[in-house]
Amino acid sequence: MTPPLTLWCWAHGTSGIDRQCAVSNFRNLQYDFRSVFTLASTGYAVVIADYVGLGSDQFFNYLAYKLHATDVVYSVAAAQSVFSELSKEWVSFGHSEGGGVAWAIAERQAVSPIPGFLGTIAAAPPPFPIGNTAPVGTSVFTAFLSFTISHLYGLNLTSIFNPVPLAALQYVQSNGGCNDAGYSAFGTFTADDIYSNTSWQLSEAAVSFARDYSVSGRPLGGPMLILQGSADTVVAPEGSMAGFNATCSSQGNNVSIEYMSVVGQDHNPSMYASQREWLQWIED
């Protein structure tokens, strides 16, 4: 009898903020041999969820990790109910935004578990979305995040953006622009060009989002490996290390938590450079 295929659920990184940016629309599923193709070619089954709002008409709440974690966990249950050849055991893995989602999955499993969870890998995770992307001042990711905070907590975008960058961001969103469109729209702006109020991350709305949607410092429902490039120019290594330390210090965490610094590697190259290590962690 053929043994069941070990199931991996993949949590993808930032692709954009509109329904057209769903990774199911990408021929290479966004990550190709950085992760998903490598896992599949090694013999694992991989399920990938489009987060709500990517691929559907609902608003996409970018970096709201626990919401995306629910999407991914439900994809596991859905895949197992359809394909009998899948194992009951499963592992989560994510990078960048998806690294935060993978972390949130482990936290979710501590309080609302579904059976078979073996652990999670969080690669280049920003556990504290506000202030953990570098450089904060000119990052299109921070601008994307402001839309989420506006939607969930009423942040007034016209009070923090200068008119031209806000119009550019709204144009990107309304026309289905994804990452590349965002990079192009913000590529020449300085922080002062973008924001009329650069302290908006200290606003009540932003603080509420950080409180409700950051990860770290909570019990986990299984072991976790954090992978972080030491030369990451997108996600500050100091943030992932702070989240690691907070989680290790959390009462009730009786699971293995490991932090691996991928020396000299930036945001995306760190996935290739650490491939041997994360494949071995899976096997172990």
Automatic annotation (TrEMBL):
It holds the Pfam family LIP. This is Serine aminopeptidase-like protein. Keywords: Aminopeptidase, Hydrolase, Protease. The keyword Hydrolase applies. GO terms for molecular function: aminopeptidase activity; triacylglycerol lipase activity. The keyword Protease applies. GO terms for biological process: lipid catabolic process.
